[in-house]
Design goal:
Length: 102
């Protein structure tokens, strides 16, 4: 993913996750970069940023989405992600035990 708007380095939260952009007349899968940061001078908001690799995409110009979250919103999102992650882990564990018992 060259020519990015998000800088990807050792501190990037998630680099290269699977992503899908959907529009009324298109659906396009790609990889994306996700990053969570706070401002150094005024750390009163959490920034959640993501950018899809769109070097070959015609419907979606190069852009980055930046969500500015209050600390409470960031904690609510983190808690919700944690609940969904646990559901995914439980489903994976159940599938593994189903396959190993046959």
């Amino acid at each position: 993913m060259s020519d990015r708007l998000i800088t990807v380095n050792a501190y990037t939260t998630l680099d290269y996750v699977e992503a899908t952009a959907k529009g009324q007349e298109f659906e396009w899968g790609s990889v994306a970069v996700v990053n969570a940061t706070v401002d150094r001078e005024e750390p009163d908001a959490v920034h959640l940023q993501f950018e899809l690799d769109n070097l070959a995409e015609q419907h979606l110009p190069k852009h980055m989405v930046n969500l500015e979250l209050t600390p409470e919103q960031a904690r609510a999102l983190a808690a919700d992600l944690g609940k969904h992650a646990a559901c995914g882990e439980n489903a994976s564990a159940e599938n593994d035990s189903t396959y190993s018992s046959h």
